[in-house]
């Protein structure tokens, strides 16, 4: 099964959604209890824009392995895309509790916090994302967003 999952991953990274779906379908049927299979299926649904089904699959993966951060990230991302911001905030906070050095989690948490009007908390998380960013891409985005949020306070 590992070989098939690596191939699914390659297909997804190459944007070959149909090929990934064809290979993943029998794996999902036979290995639905494997949280990694659920994560691959969730990624596939994200690529096709079906965030509700992706969220369900990510939640299945989380229920099977509470420590699988990939599942947590997928779940949080789906909440965010479905505009379920309070749930996304909770999900990103769980990720940060397990991985406090994730600049990406702080960045997305800040976005969700700003959407629900918690701009000062958003700024704090943007500052943390900026501090944690090693290559500068997030830092640049965070700095621009911080200025915008401060202007709107």
Describe the fold and architecture:
The structure is a single chain. With 153 residues, this protein is mainly α. It folds into two domains: 1-68, Tetratricopeptide repeat domain (Serine Threonine Protein Phosphatase 5, Tetratricopeptide repeat, Alpha Horseshoe); 83-153, Tetratricopeptide repeat domain (Serine Threonine Protein Phosphatase 5, Tetratricopeptide repeat), CATH 1.25.40. Helix content is 80%, strand content 0%. It contains nine helices and no strands.
Write the layout of secondary structure elements.
Layout: H1 2-13, H2 17-30, H3 35-47, H4 51-64, H5 69-81, H6 85-98, H7 103-115, H8 119-132, H9 137-152
Order of helices and strands: HHHHHHHHH
Work out the number of β strands: 0
Using the 3D structure, state the CATH architecture of the largest domain: Alpha Horseshoe
Could you tell me the CATH topology label of the largest domain: Serine Threonine Protein Phosphatase 5, Tetratricopeptide repeat
Number of domains: 2
